[in-house]
Design goal:
Elements (H helix, E strand, L loop, with lengths): L1 H44 L4 E13 L2 E6 L5 E6 L4 E6 L3 E15 L2 E19 L11 E2 L3 E6 L10 E4 L2 E3 L2 E2 L8 E5 L8 E15 L1 E5 L4 E8 L4 E5 L5 E5 L2 E9 L5 H6 L21 E5 L5 H9 L2 H19 L5 H22 L4 H23 L3 H23 L4 H19 L5 H4 L9
Length: 452
């Protein structure tokens, strides 16, 4: 009966340590939320995640109608009026090419660094369209002032004066996209004649600052986007992956080619979708519009890694308590529940040390310092609890191996499952090897010993 009470006590202490572990995970999530708020604060004061859509040519029109009205003499007369149904024609480019270089830099708010960039780009597009003919030449439509607009998610990010060339001629830009009150820039064009063909070559040179992420909507029939940067850790997301990429320690280069047949961006744009500043955490994908997405990410996010590490906390505590139990079982040592609890709290405090240190130093160094501190404390404490310096050192070496294995799991995200499964198998195998000759019946008072 005493054996089963001890087993229940170990399980109870393991569950009790879940409380501080959950509290520590709550602290990690709070710190993550604080960083997101820092990103939002910098985005409000400088520039948010950026998106580019266009150019789109918008041509307003108003129908001319003929109505019958009574004059002053009561006679019915036909009157031509130009206030009939109105609308806008939307024309998308035949081809679109964006070539740009992202220069990364950082902004700091308190303990938090936010990745920013400046995009120096050239956006070239060509139009070959025909203005619709009048259905009735006797009642011609009234065509309004055409607007060629570029959608920019956060126009505060524009640096200097953007330069727009129409057929090689510099043309001044106006505020606003000129369509649906969306942010961006636009230019007004001469009023065309119904039925005429309009061929136009555009080139926009600009410098645009943004936070962490960039999205480009492929609105043309043929879209080509080529981006490069000195940042060595890009994340390609959005609706399309690059057709070619090269990533190295000196940065990356990537190119996308998207046909209008492969995207619903034009239909989505006609339906009112827009490319707004991306919601934080969504990595720059536009709201409603298919978009090419790119984010400048950190290879090791301290908060994310600390959160992943804390998920293994209960496993560390359970394995430590099982080790204590083995010593009690094999060496006939008595370990008090308070000693179990103190050792478990030391293991839990490791994760709090890890997240706090990772706010000041690189994650690898934070992990090393936190693990050395906890292993050293436990090794010193256990040498007295287990009544042997050799046992305390052996237990500390076992913990060091576990911490090293956990670090391997954290940095090898793609192989985390197979490494974790292999680690659990080895631990179970070790426990089975150590206890293979234990007579569990003899350890239970009143139990029947096994037959020799």
């Amino acid at each position: 009966m005493r054996l089963w009470l001890k087993i229940l006590m170990v399980l109870g202490m393991t569950l009790a340590i879940l409380v501080p572990l959950m509290l520590i995970r709550g602290v990690i999530h709070d710190r993550q939320a604080h960083r997101q708020e820092a990103v939002r604060s910098i985005a409000r004061s400088e520039a948010a995640a950026q998106g580019i859509a266009g150019p789109v040519l918008v041509v307003p029109w108003t129908e001319t109608i003929e109505v019958e009205e009574k004059n002053a003499n009561g006679e019915v007369v036909r009157t031509v009026r130009r206030d009939g149904e109105s609308g806008e024609w939307l024309f998308f480019p035949e081809s679109l090419e964006l070539d740009g270089t992202l220069a990364p830099y950082t902004r700091r708010l308190g303990l938090h660094e936010v990745r920013m960039y400046t995009l120096a780009g050239q956006l070239s597009a060509s139009f070959d369209i025909r203005i619709p003919r009048d259905l009735d030449p006797a009642l011609p439509r009234r065509i309004g002032q055409p607007r060629l607009g570029y959608g920019i998610a956060d126009v505060r990010g524009l640096r200097g004066a953007a330069r727009l060339q129409l057929d090689g001629i510099d043309t001044p830009l106006l505020q606003g996209q000129g369509h649906r009150d969306q942010p961006g820039v636009h230019v007004q064009l001469p009023v065309p004649v119904a039925g005429t063909r309009l061929a136009l070559a555009t080139r926009l040179e600009f410098e645009l600052a943004g936070a962490e992420a960039l999205a480009v909507a492929p609105l043309a029939e043929r879209n080509r986007v080529a981006l490069s940067s000195a940042w060595p850790h890009p994340l390609f997301n959005g609706a399309f992956l690059p057709v070619g990429r090269s990533i190295g320690a000196d940065g990356f280069k990537a190119a996308w080619e998207v046909s209008s047949l492969a995207t619903n961006a034009q239909a989505q744009y006609r339906g009112g979708a827009r490319l707004a500043p991306a919601a934080l955490g969504e990595q720059g994908v536009g709201d409603g519009l298919d978009a090419i997405g790119l984010s400048l990410v950190e290879p090791v996010d301290g908060y994310a890694q600390a959160d992943r590490a804390s998920k293994y906390g209960i496993l560390f505590v359970l394995l430590t308590f099982v080790g204590f139990f083995m010593f009690e079982l094999i060496k006939q040592l008595r370990i008090h529940p308070i000693q179990y609890g103190l050792a478990g709290l030391a293991l839990a405090i490791f994760f709090l040390l890890l997240v706090s240190l990772s706010e000041h130093v690189a994650f690898g160094w934070a992990y090393l310092v936190a693990s050395v501190a906890c292993i050293g404390l436990l090794g010193f404490y256990l040498s007295h609890v287990l009544r042997s310096r050799a046992r305390g050192a052996g237990f500390a070496m076992t913990l060091a191996t576990l911490y090293a294995a956990l670090y391997g799991l954290l940095v090898s995200e793609d192989n985390a499952l197979v490494l974790g499964a292999g680690l659990l198998f080895l631990i179970l195998a070790a426990i089975m090897m150590v206890t293979r000759k234990v007579d569990w019946y003899q350890l239970s008072p009143g139990g029947t010993p096994r037959a020799p």
